[in-house]
């Protein structure tokens, strides 16, 4: 964990496992311009949610991260690897008519990327995402064979310790709808603030 925090503090893109294959896409370019941290909210002594504002077209992670710290949207990720509070704080990214994005936990404010798992399962309420999806702006995230994702933000958050009746999840529960993309379709996003689970000192953004 010390190495992860050092990488985050230095502003370098965080790849949690050097053995990542194409699922982690370590060579994937990030947003063409680094982001500006607008808010940092700790979830515990290590992790937190960082809001980042950046200009230019965002870049999505190519597939839900594998490796030691897997994308929390993956059903094979260890539940509780990230604190429940982080999922409470990031819940607005999946609210109906949200203008926020869920950032990839293995990126940083200096090299922001959008979480592939969120694009595939949690972004259906984001109108800017839907418009850019139709425009084909961003390459589709790919769900590797055999990898299963939680169906929506509520299911993922509950699996990670958030109570199903938590008020932070209520807008999602009320607005639940069919997800708008298949396993190999992208939901690109617009130039707005993004949130992601990250070290509270420096956060990743999508």
Task: Tell me about this structure.
21% of the residues lie in helices and 10% in strands. It is α+β, with helices and mostly antiparallel strands and 206 residues long. The protein starts with a helix and ends in an 8-residue tail after the last strand. Residues 1-32 and 178-206 have low confidence and may be disordered.
Low-confidence stretches: 1-32, 178-206
Instruction: Round the mean pLDDT to the nearest integer and report it.
Output: 74
- Beta-strand portion reads 5-15%
* Oligomeric state as shown: single chain
Q: Globular, elongated, flat, extended or rod-shaped: what is the shape?
A: globular
- Report the count of strand segments: 4
Which class of secondary structure composition applies to the elements? alpha+beta
What is the terminal separation in angstroms? 22 Å
Order of helices and strands: HEEHEHHHHE
**Cα radius of gyration in angstroms:** 15 Å
Helix content: 10-25%
Individual helix count: 6
Q: Biggest sheet, open or closed, and with what strands and sense?
A: 4 strands, mixed
Can you list the strand order of the major beta sheet?
1-2-4-3
